[in-house]
Design goal:
Ubiquitin-like (UB roll); 18 helices; 6-stranded mixed sheet; 5-stranded mixed sheet; alpha/beta; globular; Nucleotidyltransferase, domain 5
């Protein structure tokens, strides 16, 4: 056995010689940013290694700079341990931006302020009935009214007989705690103050009119809405009495260490223990987020009675432990589109009340999941939308929804992870050090590109929003042509921009920082500033291959929108509103997106970034009974369009890869 040390994590591990460093670190629960899942494609799992490892592989010689290799930087997926090793693993980002939808994008289904409930009151219908509320009741336990059980007496006292499921038998866990709540017992931690007098005053927690729990005193009740994305997981803690969102938090989806794309995860799910590993990772992330939100807010786990989730179809299957194999094979059918609401323990949610309920909103079809449905609900889209409304949830798995002429169409596009900075040579998440915006300015009478870096300082890489705005700026400056190719004017370097266009290992590339201090214009919000990287550090650059990756992602989104327009027989000029959803959509420069032709040309449309609309839709599904039932109804109204089966998809996709607005 040999020893692996990771001092930053306080880890010492004995491993077998010949073990790949990637596998050893995973065994030690050290998370690495490895979008390709360790296949040696992305070159992102860089670690600094001291000790005995195999010589650099051909993959490392291709993906790592010679100076990095000299400094002991290796790819964890390529390095094989041959002796004792100390690893200085760069910290992978775990926090995720959690944008909230703009107020004007919120649907009319959201409860109005006058719908706030008081303790013991009946649900108000002025702004839509809440899903969970509490009601106090005095139960006469010794009357001779013919009620055959304490349960029937309680239901009668609550006066909830008009609600579906109100008289349904209680869950076993509730039946077991009912005597203590109603009558008191020697071993009960709490009991009704009136227990033993023949009358008992209790507070019932109701979900859609059915009793979830019986309390001996009133208290706030809470719910959690989960947006389970391919890249990020976002949780909202909501006070179900008031409808107020108490707090929001997000983390990177821990499954990303097994591959940034869904196909990699589906492949892993087919291996022994693979599906359970992925399920455990994502459920653990959900539990962690719930605890992280509840603790500082002073909320006990027992106060959380409802959890609702949305996600694409693959994430739905992985969260519930359903084999996703068929999603990777034509005709890409899911095992199920919807499951009945579940007890939290059935899915492993132990950070909430065990007598509560968990549900996933229905998927639509294929890779169009409940997250797309939630976007439609949050944006108020349905078959009555007029004129045309378009919503695009931009991400690794992009969903597009178009509502017009009495129909709602939806499709899923395999945009790939370029929008998250994956498969980009210097790509990274939207974290400190990432270039997240660029624009063309004039400096000393010549065009220049000003960069904005998250957190300030020299750029370490580029994230998706920065990639879009940078390519748009270079396209405007004539450095990149319509086909996405770099343009070098007569082979001369006649200005600041042209001087950045250099020959790299894979062809022409545009330098964004210099390996020499102060060598190039760097970050700045209003004007470019001279600010290079430290001496000996590799430069940050945009390569020809990076532009091609963006074109593939951009082409997929644009082609999907164009095909939906064709299916409805309308043109882009008829679109009145465009909603851009998701974290990437929130921070995307809308003008830059239009300039490269990411969006259909819709001159009369208002373009609105609506933040995490999928998460907002999930919040509505746990707070509003009307919104929940609208989502269930809309799931059967939305028509799925399979892009792969469309006869003109390849043609439209090829045209959509061009960098232009037409």
């Amino acid at each position: 056995m040999i020893t692996l040390l990771v001092p930053s994590a306080g880890i010492k591990l004995d491993v077998e010689p010949g073990t790949h460093l990637f596998d050893a670190l995973r065994k030690a629960h050290v998370r690495l940013y490895a979008p390709c899942g360790g296949r040696g494609v992305c070159g992102k799992c860089r670690v600094a290694v001291d000790g005995d490892v195999s010589p650099p592989s051909d993959v490392e010689l291709r993906l790592l700079d010679p100076k990095e290799l000299e400094a002991g930087i290796r790819l964890a997926c390529q390095a094989v341990l041959t002796g004792d090793v100390v690893v200085r693993a760069p910290g992978s980002p775990t926090e995720a931006k959690t944008p909230v939808a703009a107020p004007e994008a919120r649907p009319t289904l959201a409860p109005e302020p006058d719908a706030v409930l008081c303790w013991g009151s009946a649900p108000s219908t002025s702004g839509g009935e809440p899903r969970v509320w509490t009601r106090t009741a005095e139960v006469d336990l010794e009357s001779h009214d013919g009620a055959p059980s304490d349960w029937e007496r309680l239901v009668a006292a609550l006066s909830i007989g008009d609600y579906d499921g109100a008289a349904a038998p209680p869950a076993l866990q509730l039946a077991r705690r009912l005597p203590a709540a109603l009558r008191g017992s020697a071993d009960a931690a709490e009991a009704s103050p009136d227990a033993g007098s023949g009358r008992s005053r209790v507070c019932a927690v109701l979900l859609d009119g059915a009793v979830l729990d019986v309390l001996v005193r009133e208290r706030d009740v809470f719910g959690v809405a989960l947006d389970i994305g391919t890249t990020t997981v976002v949780a909202y803690l909501v006070n179900l009495r008031t409808g107020e969102t108490v707090d929001v938090a997000g983390v990177l989806n821990p499954q990303a260490s097994y591959g940034a794309d869904l196909i990699s995860r589906i492949s892993l799910a087919e291996t022994p223990d693979g599906l359970e590993t992925l399920r455990r990772e994502i459920v653990g992330a959900a539990n962690g987020l719930i605890r992280r939100l509840a603790g500082p807010s002073g909320v006990d786990a027992d106060q959380i009675y409802l959890a609702g989730a949305v996600g694409n179809t693959c994430m739905h299957h992985l969260f519930l432990g359903i084999p996703p194999k068929r999603l990777a094979r034509y005709p890409y059918n899911p095992v199920v589109r919807q499951c009945h609401p579940l007890a939290p323990a059935e899915v492993g949610l132990d950070a909430m009340n065990e007598r509560g309920q968990f549900f996933f909103l229905p998927n639509i079809a294929g890779f169009v999941g409940s997250d797309a449905l939630a976007v439609a609900v949050a944006c108020g889209m349905n078959e009555r939308s007029n004129p045309a409304v378009l919503a695009i949830d931009l991400g690794t798995n992009g969903e597009i929804i178009l509502a017009a002429r009495g129909r709602v169409l939806a499709c899923s596009t395999a945009a790939g992870p370029a929008f998250e900075g994956v498969n980009i040579s210097c790509g990274m998440m939207a974290a400190p050090g990432a270039i997240d915006a660029a624009r063309l300015i004039e400096r000393n009478g010549a065009p220049e590109v000003a960069l904005h870096v998250i957190g300030g300082g020299p750029p370490l890489g580029i994230c998706g929003s920065g990639l879009v705005s940078l390519v748009a700026a270079l396209r405007s400056a004539g450095i990149v042509d319509e086909t996405g190719a770099f343009v070098r004017k007569d082979g001369r370097r006649s200005g600041p921009l042209e001087s950045r266009l250099v020959d790299g290992r894979g062809g022409l590339e545009f330098l964004l920082s210099s390996p020499e201090p102060g060598g190039l214009a760097g970050p700045g919000s209003d004007e470019a500033q001279a600010n290079g990287r430290g001496e000996g550090e590799p430069a940050v650059a945009l390569t020809q291959r990076d532009i091609r990756e963006l074109q593939l992602a951009k082409g997929a989104i644009r082609a999907g929108a164009e095909i939906l327009l064709q299916e409805l027989g309308i043109n882009a000029g008829e679109i009145s509103r465009v909603f851009l959803a998701g974290a990437f959509g929130t921070y995307l420069d809308k003008d830059a997106a239009a300039a490269i032709g990411l969006l259909p040309p819709a001159p009369r449309a208002s373009v609105t970034s609506v933040g995490n609309a999928a998460g907002e839709g999930a919040v509505l599904a746990i707070t509003s009974r009307d919104a929940y039932h609208e989502a269930l109804r809309l799931a059967h109204e939305i028509e799925h369009v399979a892009l792969g089966a469309h006869p003109r998809f390849q043609e439209i996709f090829a045209e959509s890869m061009l960098l232009g607005a037409e």
